[in-house]
Design goal:
Elements (H helix, E strand, L loop, with lengths): L11 E3 H8 L3 H9 L6 E3 L2 E5 L3 E2 L2 E2 L3 H10 L4 H9 L9 H5 L4 H10 L3
Antiparallel strand pairs: 1-3, 2-3, 4-5
Helix pairs in contact: 1-2, 3-6
């Protein structure tokens, strides 16, 4: 029996708060998003970042690589977000949560397989 939980981030961070958490300027956050190092989508009408993608004062280590793989497979930002938060108990709940732990290599392997 599966839970009827909607897949998605547990919390969101707006861009100015992300800049503060990362210790960089807002311009640098915009650059990171443009360059595919970070993912931001409109949530409640404001461009925001899923909080789980920020680890303390950095971006999750494997996130930029996974985002590149997803973009290479033709995913746009919204599709990448859906893929990252698709429920998957084998990845600690979802690919986004798996990236923050010992499942990161499996997340990367699965993202890479999307291109084939």
């Amino acid at each position: 029996m599966s839970d009827s939980v909607t897949a998605g981030p547990a919390a969101w961070v707006n861009l100015p708060d992300a800049a503060e958490r990362l210790g960089v300027s807002i311009s640098k956050v915009h650059q990171m998003i443009r360059e595919g190092q970070l993912l931001a989508v409109k949530h409640d009408g404001i461009r925001q970042i899923p909080a789980e993608l920020l680890a303390n004062s950095t971006v999750l280590k494997h996130l930029p690589g996974v985002l590149t793989l997803l973009r290479d497979a033709g995913y746009n930002d919204e599709e990448a977000l859906r893929w990252l938060y698709e429920p998957d108990p084998d990845l600690d709940g979802s690919a986004a949560l798996g990236l923050g732990g010992h499942r990161a290599r499996e997340v990367k392997r699965r993202a890479q397989a999307l291109g084939f």
